[in-house]
């Protein structure tokens, strides 16, 4: 099978488009004929030696944690899926998963059926960002109807999905974005969109129940001032979580870090919302698998509106 593999950590020059053996199928797994894979900042960070690199073990390594395809084989003990089923998933994170490849061996408890209304490219980009948004809003943030939530970096992969999920839950949504993305986010349901280039979030959002901090660092720290007593800030970037937590402790604001976890039930709920047209994924760009370096370069700009996906 064709796959992307790295044999050392580094920049795009370490990415090799190569021929590998199909993965072996273990109990509790299905073999996926892969059609698309999502690209996320964690992918290029890990390939460069950061991100999830400490969890990868010995090289070589096939990157990628999310995919969409069809079931090609099933292990003898699997009864929940059949050959030919359309599926998608977010698997094994932060350990190696190997989704930048033509075939993927996937645990059945970390994948979901893909409804016909969910295109394969959208499904491939929905796992990591969709689960991050879901778990940040509902598992960590305990968001309820009529509450007010600030979502920093609203136009990004996680942000634009979090806006839609928060509105579906009945919350009022305040978000930040450059002026060029205001109409896009308003169309997704944002009630207030703040231009972070010219406006301070603390001037426009006070006493909110929840902040979803997709930026971290000083931006996340400044957003603590928006949170009402008893409220919560969920910070996504792991590199700055300790400093944001410490700043929250200093002013008695609860800060929750998050590492997204695979969850087949939540994937199924996201797919259902997509099928019901209550959730959409903005596909910023697609690249053939062999052009993963170009996808990494676009991701590194930090200006991707929605998600990037590799087609296989």
From TrEMBL:
<feature type="domain" description="Enoyl reductase (ER)">
    <location>
        <begin position="10"/>
        <end position="310"/>
    </location>
</feature>
<dbReference type="Pfam" id="PF13602">
    <property type="entry name" value="ADH_zinc_N_2"/>
</dbReference>
<dbReference type="Pfam" id="PF08240">
    <property type="entry name" value="ADH_N"/>
</dbReference>
<protein>
    <submittedName>
        <fullName>NADP-dependent oxidoreductase</fullName>
        <ecNumber>1.-.-.-</ecNumber>
    </submittedName>
</protein>
<dbReference type="InterPro" id="IPR036291">
    <property type="entry name" value="NAD(P)-bd_dom_sf"/>
</dbReference>
<keyword id="KW-0560">Oxidoreductase</keyword>
<dbReference type="InterPro" id="IPR011032">
    <property type="entry name" value="GroES-like_sf"/>
</dbReference>
<dbReference type="InterPro" id="IPR013154">
    <property type="entry name" value="ADH-like_N"/>
</dbReference>
<dbReference type="GO" id="GO:0016491">
    <property type="term" value="F:oxidoreductase activity"/>
</dbReference>
<dbReference type="InterPro" id="IPR020843">
    <property type="entry name" value="ER"/>
</dbReference>
<dbReference type="InterPro" id="IPR050700">
    <property type="entry name" value="YIM1/Zinc_Alcohol_DH_Fams"/>
</dbReference>
